[in-house]
From TrEMBL:
Species: Cytobacillus oceanisediminis 2691
Protein name: Late competence protein ComER
Family: Belongs to the pyrroline-5-carboxylate reductase family.
SUPFAM superfamilies tied to this protein: 6-phosphogluconate dehydrogenase C-terminal domain-like, NAD(P)-binding Rossmann-fold domains
Ranges of residues in domain Pyrroline-5-carboxylate reductase catalytic N-terminal: 2-97
Entry keyword NADP: yes
The keyword Metal-binding is assigned to this record: no
Length: 274
């Protein structure tokens, strides 16, 4: 199977490298392209057998499974560009949440799907979110599930929970990275610990927390219960979090959904003629 990656920015590169590390895709079966050619050539330096081409149409022509890894407003133009290189037996996958599979399917002559990855997939971990078009063949559904299973835990989602699922899976690492940095900076500001030591301790704590959850030793509530000894120090810290966090996470989801709604309006204009 020949795979094409159109767009090797942050997520396009993560997908490319994760697929290769996952072992189900060989460099010689992959074709990549990017508007800034240097970004694609940088990947080729590490994986010499990858084919780098000059444009999206050539990448689509050489591939049967095509990933479009560009900004939401650019997807429509990319699809229009590659249409001459598409046939019914191919599959096109978008990785952007504002474009529904139904919209994508409305302008494609082949199977269509959406796969929303996470930066955690680079470590062959975390979740990827899959949605399939009504005309997507069982053949491609099976291939995509197997492909993403090699780099993540693939989860099928319905359209109505796309944004919130993406917030948790795809945006979540950035949100919790920010919170951890604030946690570290506060430790440095309020105590005699240096930033390097605090960063190492916090990082190892997060890795250990992930392992506990992954191995099923505790759920999030039971883990908190085990650490929070009645009348102890952790409990005092939890009281501060309860009083000062307030509705910050509710506001976070309101903000991401508001931006998402703006994107939906802009994207809908492109697909309204179909």
């Amino acid at each position: 199977m020949k795979i094409g990656i159109i767009g090797t920015g942050n997520m396009g590169r993560i997908l490319t490298e994760a697929f290769l590390d996952g072992g189900t895709v060989s460099p010689s079966s992959m074709t990549i392209t990017n508007r800034t050619a240097a970004k694609a050539m940088d990947i080729k330096e590490t994986h010499p057998d990858i084919t780098v081409v000059n444009n999206a149409r050539e990448a689509a022509h050489r591939s049967s499974l095509i990933f479009i890894c560009v900004k939401p407003h650019d997807v429509y133009n990319v699809v229009q560009d590659i249409l001459p290189s598409l046939s019914k037996d191919k599959c096109v996958v978008s990785i952007t949440s504002p474009i529904s599979v139904k919209q994508l399917e409305s302008i494609l002559p082949c199977s269509a799907a959406r796969a929303i990855p996470s930066i955690t997939n680079r470590a062959l971990s975390g979740v990827s979110l899959l949605s399939f078009g009504e005309q997507c063949s069982e053949h491609w559904k099976g291939i995509l599930h197997k492909l993403f299973e090699s780099i993540s835990t693939p989860v099928f989602i319905e359209e109505n929970i796309t944004r919130v699922s993406s917030d948790i899976v795809s945006c979540g690492p950035a949100f919790f990275s920010y919170l951890t940095q604030r946690f570290i900076n506060a430790a440095v500001a309020e105590t005699e610990i240096d930033k390097e030591t605090a960063t190492k301790l916090a990082g190892e704590m997060l890795i250990g927390l992930g392992d506990l959850l992954k191995k099923g030793f505790y759920t999030l509530p039971t883990l908190q219960e085990k650490v929070c000894v009645k009348g102890g120090i952790t409990g005092e810290g939890i009281k501060i979090l309860e009083s000062e966090l307030g509705t910050v996470f509710e506001h976070l989801f309101q903000a991401t959904h508001s931006k998402y709604d703006e994107d939906l309006i802009e994207v809908k204009k492109q697909y309204s003629l179909h």
